[in-house]
Design a protein that fits this description.
6-stranded antiparallel sheet, 4-stranded antiparallel sheet, 246 residues, 5 helices
């Protein structure tokens, strides 16, 4: 929950120019196979809180090649429900793997930029992201690819193991944007009651468990675009004057 405004998520559809999204995104994804990480090494849980059979449980956490990921899943009866395509390069040494619009410096954000080895089919989407008024700084941009027939289950973006996590104040900002209309996203409250995100794009506190217990029979796609929200955008969302989302 975004504590200060007591909402599980904010619908961003009216604030983003979704009607101008390039229509070749799926084609760009299809040209990017060699750049996709076929694993996330992220702990995922089922809706009831039980740990799922994700690759996080496997010991071979240094795998890099597609054949190695396949071997891990075959040997351990595990699965990576999501693959990731990083559209950006991060030169920072960030042990938490999280970015805060107040705590991180302009230099930190400048050390994150769109990668140069993407197929040119991505150019229209990258220009679309650059044109958004919602960001003063654009951070990491990732495409999340959910595998057919595999529920993505639930995870948290907290930067530490569950045993070490204690809730804290933060201003970690991003937009979530789905490309596949049928893709579902749920955010869980402290009792693991799910709230379904009904919009195509959203902002929420990613320290909450989020994901889905539902699958589709085909690949589905969404983006997470991190950054520093502009003051105008924060005002439009009634977040001006709020220093923390935790």
């Amino acid at each position: 929950m975004i504590a200060q405004i007591k909402k599980m998520y904010i619908d961003l559809d009216r604030y983003l120019p979704l009607h101008t999204l390039p229509n070749n995104i799926v084609e760009a994804i299809g040209e990017s196979y060699d750049l996709i990480k076929q694993n996330t090494w992220q702990k995922t849980t089922k809706l009831n809180g039980d740990v799922s059979n994700c690759n996080w449980q496997s010991k071979e956490s240094r795998a890099k090649e597609s054949s190695q990921f396949f071997e891990i899943e075959v040997k351990n009866r595990t699965v990576a429900p999501m693959w990731i395509l990083d559209l950006s390069i991060d030169l920072n040494k960030n042990s938490k793997n999280l970015y805060d619009s107040i705590e991180n410096s302009s230099e930190d954000w400048d050390n994150i930029y769109f990668r140069k080895d993407l197929p040119t089919a991505w150019d229209p989407f990258l220009e679309w992201v650059r044109s958004l008024y919602c960001f003063n700084q654009i951070g990491r941009t990732s495409l999340l690819l959910t595998r057919p027939g595999v529920p993505p289950q639930y995870h948290r973006d907290i930067g530490v193991g569950d045993e070490s996590y204690k809730p804290y104040s933060h201003r970690q900002e991003f937009i979530w944007l789905k490309i596949t209309d049928e893709k579902t996203l749920f955010i869980l409250d402290e009792n693991r009651n799910p709230t379904q995100v009904e919009s195509r794009s959203a902002f929420f506190n990613h320290h909450n468990w989020h994901g889905s217990h539902k699958s589709l029979p085909y690949w589905s796609f969404s983006f997470k675009i991190e950054g520093v929200f502009s003051e105008k955008f924060r005002k439009d969302l009634n977040l001006d004057g709020i220093s923390s989302y935790g």
